[in-house]
Write a structure and sequence with these properties.
This protein is mainly alpha-helical and 298 residues long. The protein has a single domain, classed as MetI-like fold. Helices cover 74% and strands 0% of the residues. Helix 1 crosses helix 13 and helix 3 packs antiparallel against helix 10. It is globular and about 80 Å long. It is found in: Cell membrane. This is ABC transmembrane type-1 domain-containing protein.
């Protein structure tokens, strides 16, 4: 291949990837730089008439010494863990069912994508209607079946609100783990199950000794992706509870939103956002170490 041809191909590659690089710079790198800059100043619209003084790391110090910040952080950990567990378990059950040979399987596979296709804000509004204390379907069925004696304001009770926002998001996002697990299940050789059945292995032992080991890497991938997307999620909790009642569902993303758009303290909100981004980078680093490192060793 001539030097001119190599040069042309190199230039073509740069031209093809340049739009993606430009978009990445505009929507990711530039906002991070602006946020870092704002976090070093007392950038508060309520006190802006007195100037925007440089305060260094004071916003970061205020964040890590704030009890509300750590309360929201612990809520975020709980929210993330509950979503990961729920989506993994529910997604695995649905994937196992879809992996069976049943009629209309393609219809079922298409149907499970419906929750994923619905916008998060729309899904949250639907769940609010279902949980409405006066004419919601959940209260209606619970009353008819005798589980409760009076209507319950599900999203107005701190404990129930925490439970229902997790259920709503698990329902919305479980198709991701289902697709990942279903793809992995279809790669398992059928001969392994046939040999195990000939040896008298029960379905449960087949699951533990054949299915689960084959799914281990898929579970790591799905858990990591769900963790990343749940940790910084915002829409469903904000639409359903706005972090209430009494801050019972307040997570870092809603806390940062309130600091920025209720207290108008954009400097403090920027510092808290960068702390959250740092935590996410640690999670991504763990993912790359566990998954990519394992791939290289194999």
């Amino acid at each position: 291949m001539s030097a001119v041809s190599k040069f042309s191909r190199k230039n073509l590659s740069l031209v093809l990837i340049s739009p993606s690089l430009i978009i990445l710079i505009i929507v990711v790198i530039v906002p991070v730089i602006i946020g870092l800059f704002m976090s070093l100043f007392r950038y508060n619209l309520m006190t802006m008439q007195r100037g925007i003084p440089f305060i260094g790391l004071d916003n970061y110090a205020a964040s890590v010494t704030s009890s509300q910040f750590w309360y929201s952080f612990l809520n975020t950990i709980w929210w993330t863990f509950a979503n990961v567990a729920g989506q993994i378990l529910f997604g695995l059950v649905i994937a196992l069912l879809l992996n069976q040979k049943v009629k209309g399987l393609l219809v079922y596979k298409a149907a499970i994508l419906i929750p994923w296709a619905i916008p998060a804000s729309v899904a949250a509004l639907n769940w609010m209607w279902l949980l409405h204390p006066d004419f919601g379907l959940v209260n209606y069925l619970a009353l008819k079946l005798g589980f409760i004696s009076d209507s319950i304001p599900w999203l107005g009770h701190p404990v129930w609100a925490r439970i229902w926002v997790v259920i709503a998001r698990v329902w919305k996002e479980f198709p991701l783990s289902t697709i990942i697990f279903l793809a992995a299940l279809q790669q398992i050789p059928r001969s392994l199950y046939e040999a195990a059945e000939m040896d008298g292995a029960s379905p449960w032992k087949c699951f533990l000794n054949i299915t689960l080991p084959f799914l281990r890497s898929s579970i790591v991938v799905a858990s990591t992706l769900i963790t990343i997307w749940t940790f910084n999620s915002f829409n469903m909790i904000w639409v359903m509870t706005k972090g209430g009642p009494v801050n019972s569902t307040e997570i870092l993303s809603t806390q940062i939103y309130n600091v920025a758009f209720s207290r108008y303290n954009f400097g403090l909100a920027s510092a808290q956002s960068l702390i959250m981004v740092s935590i996410l980078l640690i999670i991504i680093g763990f993912y790359l170490y566990k998954v990519e490192g394992k791939n290289l060793s194999e």
